[in-house]
Amino acid sequence: MPKIKPVKDFPLSAERIESLKAGILAAFSFTIAYGLLVIANNFLLFKQFEVFAFLPSISVLELTSKVAIAFLSGFLFGITYRYIIREDKNPHLKDGAVLAFGLVRGLAAIEVKQNLSEVVWLLSLLTIESIICFAIARSALDFALQHHWLKPFRNL
Question: 63 is in which domain, residue-wise?
Answer without folding.
Answer: 12-146
